[in-house]
Structure formats: structure tokens, C-alpha cells
Design a protein that fits this description.
Layout: H1 11-29, H2 35-51, H3 55-64, H4 70-86, H5 93-102
Helix pairs in contact: 1-2, 1-3, 1-4, 3-4
Protein name: Importin N-terminal domain-containing protein
Domain Importin N-terminal: 41-100
GO cellular component, one term: RNA nuclear export complex
């Protein structure tokens, strides 16, 4: 899974990225998957969380999407929380406004 794509802020890209993340999270939690596959999916999710400029957007998309599993929605909330706690001073003013506005949705 290639979750480290650097993309500009755009709806369709975020949707595709969120779908990839959802699959990775589901694979991580799947008891039937091989340990190596689960580990790779987990590392991809963690890498995305640490490096992606679309962390908050993808997180909101996952958390707000009722078509995603509860596990994926929870991961979306974790992405947003991580952005606020650990990357707030590094993100742009536009991203901060996006997060502040989205908390009321």
C-alpha cells in the first residue's frame, strides 16, 4: 500500500487516500491476515500519520464517513487528534482553520 503520496488538497484524492487507509486499518486488525502483512499495513498507517500533509483531511473523511467501519472511523479521529497534538505548530493557517471549522460538523 502506498500511503505516502504527497498530494495537493483535493476532494477525490482525499477520498482515494482514505479508502487506502481504511483497507490498511482493516488489514491491521484482521486475525486472518499474515503477521507480516499486518505489520506492513500498521507501518504504512503510522508513516502516514507522521508525515502526510493530508492527515487531518483524511482523518475527517474517515471519521465522518458512515460507510466506513467503526475501526476506520476511530482511526480517522486518531489522525485528527495526532495533527492537533503533535503537528499544530507545523501546519498552515488554512489547515488550522479547516480543523476548527470541521469540529462543528
Amino acid at each position: 500500500m502506498n500511503l505516502n503520496k504527497n498530494k495537493a488538497m483535493a476532494g477525490p484524492d482525499v477520498a482515494a487516500l482514505a479508502a487506502d487507509l481504511s483497507r490498511a486499518v482493516e488489514l491491521t486488525m484482521s486475525a486472518g491476515a499474515a503477521q507480516s502483512d499486518r505489520l506492513r499495513a500498521y507501518q504504512a498507517c503510522e508513516s502516514f500519520k507522521e508525515t502526510s500533509p493530508l492527515c487531518a483531511e483524511a482523518g475527517l473523511y474517515l471519521a465522518a464517513g458512515t460507510h466506513h467501519s467503526l475501526i476506520s472511523r476511530h482511526f480517522g479521529l486518531q489522525l485528527m487528534e495526532h495533527t492537533v497534538k503533535y503537528r499544530w505548530t507545523q501546519i498552515s493557517q488554512q489547515e488550522k482553520i479547516f480543523i476548527k471549522v470541521c469540529r462543528y460538523l
